[in-house]
Backbone:
């Protein structure tokens, strides 16, 4: 039976699907999401499989739906609700859906093309109108009675231009021409220089900027444009001018030769623009109606097409029997869900009306099953932390249940502050209350999604930080006097130790707990608030937090005990119990467990009166390895003998850990042939095929392959490489022994980060909030408002976000390296079921909110 503590018991099953009901059966299995299909055609190219045409048809429908979705978003129409979950359509209905989508695409494409043409015409007419209005200022408004100048009335400055003798040009037979149009504002200067250099001064360029913004036909953004009018002599110059205009992507329009023609053109343009606006308005209304009708079904179509494509993809993984009437597939499935799989196959056969039912048959396998650990919305975040290190090996002990408690607790040890923890818990509690809000769940901000997915982790981290903040008696770097201090200053005066002159002459005075009445008893919860006023507060907290970190680290590193549950209890490797687990446990507890004992014993055995003569734990721990006594006071009677005994046990466990397993495997392979045959018979007799395959794999790892009697002789002839086994075990022994030292020191980060967080919080209070509270004038309240705002911003950004991220990463490191490394291999393969529920994540990439 599977649980969060260990992965689900998996089995390999074979599905026999009738050809007529295979589609419906796969659809039902997709709705349940209980099986993972294996590819039975690995050597067949994906383009040569049976249902490749159906998949191409689904991809074509996906393309059409993508086009519809882009048009709906362009029209700024609301997208449909995502609460619907239609079933996969029947294969006979796929052609009707395909035809409906193709008709809708063709209609929308035609309407869109017509709309784009109308918009292009409207844009050109608008530009033409602006060009005529602007060039009207270039025209001559003088007399029209002089016949020789009638054809040049638009350019009276030609008569006054000394550079051009137009009467001479006229005698040569050259004709005067005009080119007008629009150009983008950034190009006009380069355009003017190019015109002058190429045309050698035989052109006259006049231009003026339009006051209004016009739409850019390429980008669709509003841009500034310039109207220009060019006069030139001769056809050759005119051709050069047109080529230059084409190079600069100018929009050219015909220029009227007279005022009457200009007036007629302007009036005609006004009428056509009005008609185009009316047609465009009706086209937009019709297009919105079509898109609105399509938007009501686009999400349903998307789900149906996705499910249909997924079903055909799975069918391509199946193989056909010799009669081509039955599809055969292999699936991984939890043993406890086999009944639900049978029920799904029966339901699919009933819906399809098949005469022969589809069925499932459990088959034996030597392959390692995938790992399935069922989680909920609370445990999924902690399971993701474990899976980031590595997916657990099949049936391996899962660290997630322990991580639910230890991860937020170790975070809180480094982050402990009542105020900061309260802010974090309130923020996480708000996310938990609105966890079903679609806008919060389906955003495209990856940082927010990370916070939202880990809302329960943040909630526990905040609650544990509140607890450790109470223990540290720290709230925004200030202590809370909830129960009254256990220290009394009055007793010092009553005993005559302090006098009034002492207070005036000394900045600091020492409270003596040995005087009656000075120390009444310990604070009920956490550290006494009087330590917040003490000069040696930092020294006291350093000693307290350092020893606490060592104790918590050694207790937390006992994840090696879980390795015993893995190897001995479940995988039945009893040799590892005596040759690996016990030496590791003895080495750790004889040395570092004894260190914890000395810390706790010193706390309990020595009172305040004896504190000055209390021995140093560090000195005694060093003398334990040197096996000598420095003449210091002993912690307890018989300490030297106990320390020597524990050191000998720890040292003897090292060669057992180094040589025990390799020698045992060598003896097992070369000296226990008869025992191996007996063990092989026993294991076959035990029953289940899964246990048989599991024990076979374990025997192979131990060097004994006797689970299969028919091949026992071959395994007996094989010789294990004693050098490789010894090298592997030697590396493990060195890593473990040195790791116990380095990992214990690594837990001192609990002390370091807790101290850093407390000091940073105190600095922030003194440099920001304390300055605002010191102002005692009438304007102090007004000054306190921005100071409090600055204090709040710095608290959230530095102490909550940056310090919180730092403590989170260090807690993650302690779990991955110091805790999970002791027992967790993480070499498994994650169970990936065929489930339609996972299709919702693909809609975010396709544009659905």
Residues:
């Amino acid at each position: 039976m599977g649980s969060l503590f260990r992965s689900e018991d998996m089995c390999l099953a074979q599905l026999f699907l009738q050809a007529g009901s295979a589609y419906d059966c796969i659809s039902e299995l997709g709705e349940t999401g209980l099986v993972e299909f294996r590819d039975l055609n690995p050597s067949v190219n994906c383009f040569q499989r049976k249902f490749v045409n159906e998949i191409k048809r689904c991809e074509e429908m996906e393309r059409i739906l993508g086009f519809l979705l882009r048009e709906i978003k362009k029209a700024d129409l609301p997208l449909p609700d995502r609460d619907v979950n239609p079933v996969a359509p029947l294969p006979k209905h796929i052609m009707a859906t395909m035809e409906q989508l193709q008709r809708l695409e063709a209609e929308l494409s035609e309407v869109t093309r017509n709309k784009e043409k109308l918009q292009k015409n409207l844009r050109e007419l608008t530009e033409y109108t602006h060009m005529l209005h602007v060039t009207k200022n270039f025209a001559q408004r003088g007399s029209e009675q002089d016949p020789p100048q009638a054809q040049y009335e638009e350019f009276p400055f030609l008569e006054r231009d000394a550079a051009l003798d137009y009467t001479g040009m006229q005698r040569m037979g050259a004709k005067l021409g005009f080119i007008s149009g629009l150009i983008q504002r950034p190009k006009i200067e380069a355009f003017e220089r190019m015109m002058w250099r190429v045309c050698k001064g035989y052109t006259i360029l006049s231009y003026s900027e339009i006051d209004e913004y016009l739409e850019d036909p390429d980008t669709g953004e509003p841009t500034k444009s310039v109207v220009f009018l060019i006069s030139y002599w001769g056809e050759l110059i005119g051709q050069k001018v047109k080529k230059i205009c084409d190079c600069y992507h100018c929009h050219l329009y015909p220029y009227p030769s007279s005022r009457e023609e200009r007036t007629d053109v302007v009036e005609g343009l006004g009428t056509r623009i009005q008609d185009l606006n009316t047609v465009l308005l009706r086209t937009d209304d019709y297009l919105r109606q079509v898109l609105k009708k399509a938007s009501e079904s686009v999400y349903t179509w998307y789900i149906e097409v996705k499910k249909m494509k997924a079903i055909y993809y799975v069918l391509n993984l199946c193989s056909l029997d010799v009669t081509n009437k039955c599809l055969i597939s292999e699936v991984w499935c939890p043993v406890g869900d086999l009944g639900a799989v049978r029920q799904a196959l029966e339901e699919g056969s009933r819906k399809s009306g098949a005469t022969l039912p589809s069925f499932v048959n459990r088959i034996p396998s030597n392959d390692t099953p995938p790992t399935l650990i069922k989680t909920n919305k609370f445990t999924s975040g902690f399971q993701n932390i474990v899976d980031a290190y590595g997916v657990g090996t099949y049936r391996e002990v899962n660290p997630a249940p322990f991580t639910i408690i230890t991860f937020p607790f170790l975070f809180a040890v480094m982050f402990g502050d009542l105020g900061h923890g309260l802010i974090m818990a309130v923020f996480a509690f708000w996310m938990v209350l609105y966890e079903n809000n679609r806008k919060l769940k389906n955003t495209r901000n990856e940082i927010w999604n990370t916070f939202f997915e880990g809302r329960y982790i943040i909630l526990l981290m905040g609650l544990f930080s509140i607890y450790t903040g109470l223990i540290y008696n720290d709230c925004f770097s200030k202590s809370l006097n909830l129960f009254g201090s256990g220290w009394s200053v009055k007793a010092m005066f009553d005993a005559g130790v302090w006098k009034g002159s002492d207070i005036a002459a000394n900045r600091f005075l020492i409270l003596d707990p040995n005087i009656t009445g000075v120390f009444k008893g310990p604070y009920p919860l956490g550290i006494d608030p009087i330590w917040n006023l003490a000069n040696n507060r930092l020294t006291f907290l350093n000693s307290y937090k350092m020893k606490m970190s060592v104790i918590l680290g050694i207790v937390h590193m006992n994840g090696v005990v879980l390795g015993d549950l893995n190897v001995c209890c479940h995988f039945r490797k009893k040799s590892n119990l005596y040759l690996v687990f016990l030496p590791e446990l003895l080495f750790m507890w004889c040395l570092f467990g004894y260190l914890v004992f000395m810390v706790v014993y010193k706390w309990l055995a020595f009172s305040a009166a004896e504190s000055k003569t209390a021995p140093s734990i560090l000195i005694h721990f060093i003398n334990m390895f040197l096996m000598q006594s420095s003449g210091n006071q002993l912690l307890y009677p018989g300490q030297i003998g106990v320390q020597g005994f524990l050191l000998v046990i720890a040292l003897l466990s090292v060669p057992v850990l180094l040589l025990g397993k390799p020698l045992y495997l060598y003896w097992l392979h070369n000296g226990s042939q008869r025992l191996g045959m007996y063990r092989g018979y026993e294991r076959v007799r035990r029953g289940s095929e899964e246990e048989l395959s599991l024990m076979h794999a374990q025997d192979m790892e131990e060097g004994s392959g006797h689970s299969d009697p028919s091949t026992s002789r071959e395994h007996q002839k094989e010789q294990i490489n004693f050098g490789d086994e010894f090298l592997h075990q030697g590396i493990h022994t060195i890593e473990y022994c040195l790791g116990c030292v380095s990992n214990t020191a690594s837990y001192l980060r609990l002390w370091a980060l807790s101290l850093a967080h407390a000091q940073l919080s105190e600095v922030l209070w003194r440099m920001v909030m304390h300055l605002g509270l010191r102002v005692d004038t009438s304007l102090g309240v007004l000054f306190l408002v921005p100071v409090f705002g600055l204090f709040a911003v710095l608290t959230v950004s530095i102490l909550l976000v940056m310090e919180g991220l730092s403590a989170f990463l260090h807690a993650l490191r302690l779990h991955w390296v110091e805790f999970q490394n002791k027992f967790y291999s993480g070499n498994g393969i994650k169970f990936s079921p065929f489930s339609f529920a996972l299709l919702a994540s693909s809609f975010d990439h396709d544009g659905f909110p």
Observations:
- The chain has a mean pLDDT of 83.
- Residues 144 and 425 are 87 Å apart (CA to CA).
- The longest helix spans residues 259-315.
